[in-house]
Amino acid sequence: MRHTFAKHISRVLLCGVALTGPIGCTEFLKEQAPSNLTTSSFYTIPDHAEAALASVYASLRFMGDGAGIFSSNWQLLEALTGTSTTETAQNSDLNNLYSLVHDGNTAHVVNYWNGLYRVIANANQVLDRVPAITPMDAAQKTKILGETRFLRATAYFTAVQLWGDIPLITTPQTAASTDFLPARASKEDVYKLIVDDLLAAEASGLAWMDVSGRANLAAVKTQLAKVYLTMAGFPLSKGAPYYKLAADKALEVITYANANPSVINLFTTYEDVHRESTKNRVEHLFMLQYNTLVAGNPMDNFYPNFKPVTYNGPGGTGSSVPTTAFYNSYEPGDLRTKDQVGYFYTTYYTNGNGAPFSLGAPYVFKHFNRTANGTAGVAGSRQNNLNVPQIRYAETLLIYAEAQNEVGGPTQAAYDAFKRIRDRATLTTPALGTYTQASFREAVWRERWHELCYEQITWFDMVRLRKVYNEKTNGFDNFVGHINLSSNQALQEKHLLLPIPKQELLNNPNLKTQNPGYPGV
Q: 116 and 167 in contact (C-beta within 8 Å)?
């Protein structure tokens, strides 16, 4: 993405040099340098639109940015779930998240707010300025606007789940804007924009898949299904009609996949989930794009602390590691727990490619890049170009299974979607007739916890369901009062929302009060 952006900017700069050639010194001093780009001079040709869109994609990578020593922004959505803990405990903000005592000053909370609104601001520029670019191929313009709407909807979807009522900004802002200090909009209004954006993206002529990593139709439809599923649950509680919308939309992707299994499918092995050569393909419907020329994969905090699993030798931070209780909660024989085969590893090779050794505990293997770090007898490239999954086809199947069950109990199609996840894990699935609606509901939830773990998804399930997986009982507790085994702390009502960053409340009086339960300003 960054390379494309740089290429387009270079073209603009070269044009600027050409334009200044025949102009005299006096006249030149009176003119604004054409290479000093502004929003009024930049959005004039189709290449500008492509470059601006690339900047929106690039801004999504905020989740991989640092959040102090031994921590990254993405850990916000893992530390709160109780499925991970830390071996280092050297980052006070991260420790506060694990201990459920975070507030409006916690770095990860502040960084997520700023990062999401940066995506939104960049998207608003594109949506405001690109329509006026002429001449420009109509299909290209529609596609760019559709991709941008998908990205803006994705940012708002994350934000509204984290903070509830939030500022709803849909146009570029300056200090002179009448709503430069915006008030908080209702969740209903935010979700309306999200759905409208995704429906526009769905109609914008996107291909079903795009190996370049840009938004595609399968990703848009799955995201829309996920939004409907969330709206059916808490806090909007729209119920059965929205479960049906979610099921129908996910089924559109499943129907296409069944007819085109080489295009969309589950990977045959879990290794393919974190293999460089399978990026943006088959199961990976949408990913954050990483390349060391611009930004390397940001999931290093999953590495064990000071164990030589990579070419760097004894390194890593171990600041996000699985809890033993969660690892042990998988069914016996689940392939996802098999060492170096599934989503965890308990042994590796010294310095990435040397003698095997025991890690002494399970660690997250889902984001481990063998190509970069090395594997048995093969030195690593030292270039971690692995993307970060955002939407996988596995989630599409589980969305459908859950939503369809809520519409009218477990059907054969819902059961088949659910069973596909378990078949890949080499698990035996009870016959359809043995499930009630209630037991099938919890079975699907359990698969979501075990299949989608450590992909920044679990926290949102906890919030929309008001339920949390109990690793000891294999059942589900109410959110409020559930004990996170990572810290032995109980979740409270206030934890359903994050606190508004303190500086935002200080700078913008129109935000008014802090979210309930957190200290104000």
A: no
What is the model's pTM? 0.92
Hey, is 91 helix, strand or coil?
Answer: coil
pLDDT, averaged across the chain? 93
Amino acid in position 417: A
Pairing assessment for the beta strands 388-392 and 467-469 based on DSSP bridges: unpaired
Distances (CA, A) of 425 to 262, 321, 337, 447: 20, 22, 9, 10
334 φψ region: left (φ > 0), alpha (ψ -120 to 50), beta (else):
beta
Query: How far is it, in rounded angstroms, from Cα 205 to Cα 215?
Result: 11
Beta bridge partners of 392: 284
* Rounded distance between C-alpha atoms, residue 163 and residue 102, angstroms: 14
Q: What is the pLDDT of residues 9-45, one digit of tens each?
A: 333 333 333 333 333 434 433 445 555 566 667 899 9
- Other Cβ atoms within 10 Å of 135 Cβ, number: 7
Burial 395-421 (b: 16+ CB within 10 A, else e): bbbbbbbbbbbbbeebbeebbbbbbbb
- Ordered by where they begin, the domains of the chain are 43-205+475-516 (1.25.40.390), 217-284+396-454 (1.25.40.900), 300-386 (no CATH)
Give the model confidence (pLDDT) of 220-250 as tens digits. 999 999 999 999 999 999 999 999 999 999 9
Q: What is the pLDDT of residue 35?
A: 54
- Per cent of the chain over pLDDT 70 is 92
Q: What letter does residue 278 receive in the DSSP assignment?
A: G
Strand, coil or helix: 333: coil
Radius of gyration, alpha carbons of the chain: 24
Helix (H, G, I), strand (E, B) or coil at 21: coil
Instruction: Kindly tell me the burial class for residue 509, based on how many C-beta atoms sit within 10 Å of its own C-beta (0-12, 13-18, 19 or more).
Output: exposed
Tokens of 262: 């080489």
Residues in a beta bridge with 476: 469
Coil, strand, or helix at residue 403? helix
CB 9 within 8 A of CB 93: no
- Per-position b or e across 266-286, b if 16+ CB within 10 A of its CB: bbeebeebbbbebbbbbbbbb
